[in-house]
Design a protein that fits this description.
The chain is α/β, with parallel strands linked by helices. The protein folds into two domains: 263 residues, ANL, N-terminal domain (Rossmann fold, 3-Layer(aba) Sandwich), CATH 3.40.50.12780; 99 residues, 2-Layer Sandwich (GMP Synthetase, Chain A, domain 3). It contains nine helices and 23 strands. A seven-stranded mixed beta sheet has the order 8-7-9-10-11-12-13, sandwiched between helices. Strands 2-1-3-4 form a four-stranded mixed beta sheet, covered by helices on one side. It has a four-stranded antiparallel beta sheet with strand order 14-15-17-18, with no helix packed on it. α3 packs across α4. The chain starts with 12 loop residues before the first strand and ends with a helix.
Length: 380
């Protein structure tokens, strides 16, 4: 990197290497004014992961709180607006390229569904390195909605923003348990699966980085979004989908459909229900087990603080159901847990092993990193 001037005859990819806040918003807006695209870099990444994602994304400008540096990356195509790394619950992440027309389509559809007016104010407190956090900022800029951008979520930040007039916020389920939901007109929930009981002003969303944030609200697709189920897998089509990945590959078929990799169903009235990621499905003794349904049953035990369920290779069963639990090991035995599960679920859903841990590894949006737990198990 150097401090030398950069040419203006290309569309730059500006890496926003700074925490969320007003400076972040201003630099993003400046990039768009210059017809450049932005890539928000996760500020929590360790050095090795940071270098890996920068090598994948290849920005041409590094924008920090102290100014800009040029970088030997690759420019973007005309019309590209943002590049966002996939959350990567396992494996190497990709980087989705979203055009300005896609970002605008997402902003308009979301604003319409939530009945947002100029009297509203968004609080952006999720990491902007994830599309769910970034989209709060981009839709505010596009629609002219007032915005408070915070470096992270905290209960104090949530309450202070409400005191200052914030009416809309995007959160993950873990944050919902810590706040007074009634302080906002609407709370948009993304990331991990939401709790069963929700306040009336909470809207559950479904979407991926490749879909430019949530495209299904409370099971119903946004305007301009089409859904299909093929072989139990959810397919999405719409104007807010990515143009391509940063490496140039295009994950859309010839008719513009994107295969999400999530298993789900559509009701007769068009309501989408997600069962889980196809790679998370546990096939044990020929029976299908969805880990999230087992996790929900385990969470009904008040002594369990947190839980994650995954399949572990097993010579007898193919894969065996294992549970990682944050809670008192002296009060939760395997027999007790299996008996609890079998009260409401088939016997093949009951875990065959328990592992007690201090915490469940999760992404910034609250998704459990099942592969990390299974990998750590094989290393021990």
């Amino acid at each position: 990197m150097s401090h030398e001037p950069y040419a203006r005859d290309v569309n730059e990819l500006v890496c926003l290497d700074m925490a969320s806040g007003q400076q972040f918003v201003d630099r993003l807006s400046q990039a768009w004014d210059n017809d450049d695209a932005v890539f928000p870099l996760d500020q929590r990444l360790p050095t090795a992961a940071r270098e890996q994602i920068l090598a994948l994304v290849q920005p041409t400008i590094m924008a920090t709180s102290d100014g800009d540096l040029t970088a030997s990356g690759q420019p973007v195509e005309n019309g590209d607006a943002v590049v966002v790394a996939t959350s990567g619950t396992s494996g190497i992440p990709k980087a989705a390229v979203l055009t300005m027309s896609a970002v605008e389509a997402s902003a308009r559809a979301t604003t319409q569904r939530l009945n947002v007016t100029l009297r509203d104010r968004w609080l952006a407190c999720l990491p902007p390195s994830h599309v769910g956090g970034l989209s709060v900022i981009t839709r505010s800029l596009i629609m002219g909605t007032s915005l408070t951008a915070a470096p992270q979520f905290s209960v104090d930040i949530y309450n202070e923003a409400a005191d200052d007039g914030a009416t809309l916020v995007s959160l993950v389920s873990t944050a919902l348990q810590r706040i007074d939901a009634s302080r906002y007109r609407a709370i948009v929930l993304g990331g991990s699966k939401p709790p069963t009981q929700l306040p009336d002003n909470c809207i559950t969303t479904y979407g991926l980085t490749e879909t430019g944030s949530g495209v299904v609200y409370n099971g119903t697709p946004l305007q301009g979004v089409e859904l299909e189920i093929r072989d139990s897998i959810v397919y999405v089509r719409g104007t807010m989908l990515l143009r391509a990945y940063r490496d140039g590959s295009v994950p859309l078929d010839s008719n513009g459909w994107f295969r999400t990799g999530d298993r789900g169903t559509l009701s007769d009235s068009g309501i989408l229900s997600i069962e889980g990621r196809e790679g998370d499905l546990i096939i044990t003794g020929g029976e299908n087990v969805w880990p999230e349904t087992v996790e929900e049953a385990i969470r009904t035990l008040k002594i369990v603080t947190d839980v994650c369920v995954a399949g572990v290779a097993d010579p007898e069963w193919g894969h065996a159901v294992h549970a990682w639990i944050v809670g008192p090991p002296t009060e939760i035995t395997l027999d007790f847990l299996r008996g609890h599960i079998k009260q409401t679920m088939p016997a093949h859903c009951a875990p065959r092993a328990i592992h007690f841990v201090s915490e469940i590894p999760r992404t910034a949006l609250g998704k459990p990193q099942r592969s990390v737990l299974v990998e750590n198990l094989s290393l021990n």
